[in-house]
Amino acid sequence: MNHTTALLVIDVQVGIVEGTPDHPNPVYAKESLVQTIQTLIDHARTRSIPVLYVQDLDVKDAGEEAFAIHPALSPAPHEPVIYKRATDSFHGTDLHEQLQALGVKHLVIVGCKTEYCVDSACRKATTLGYDVTLVRDAHSTTDNAALHAEQIIAHHNTCLHGLGNLDPFILVRPSEEDVLVPSHDSYR
């Protein structure tokens, strides 16, 4: 099976990663998150694997620092940035069309926040026909009233691993593996 891969970087905006005066809590393990995502972006670029960014319009107003993509993870001039309002990166956007135009069959997903936009993108991608690799140590969130961020991340890594919709499914893999090469066929 031919798998064309793309790296999807979700909501790594300054206001989410670093926090804002209104929401002062940065995401869990922000330094290692940024470093891991930057390494994956570098690997994708070196191998001419498309990198696409999703940016949430509800974080702050465009032009404000909190709205901007984290400076350590900035897109290259040719890399698309898809703007969204919903937690689902595909809803009301042309993300699916852009991926189809690139011939993508395998999505590697990283970013923020685990239980919202990352989870939604993983699940929706499988219903659209994409195999998904969620990078175990390249997504993050903040504490909520019920769970600490570390628990939320662990829970999602566990429940999303192997989740599928008919044929396409999600694998959760650590960044130490070559996550840009799909391993789904070895499980079919």
TrEMBL record:
Per UniProt, the keywords (alphabetical) are:
Hydrolase
Please list the residue ranges annotated as the Isochorismatase-like domain: 5-150
What CDD domains does the database record attribute to this sequence? nicotinamidase_related
What family does this belong to?
Belongs to the isochorismatase family.
Q: What is this protein called?
A: Amidase
Q: Which organism is it from?
A: Brevibacillus choshinensis
Q: What are the top taxonomic ranks of the organism?
A: Bacteria, Bacillati, Bacillota, Bacilli, Bacillales
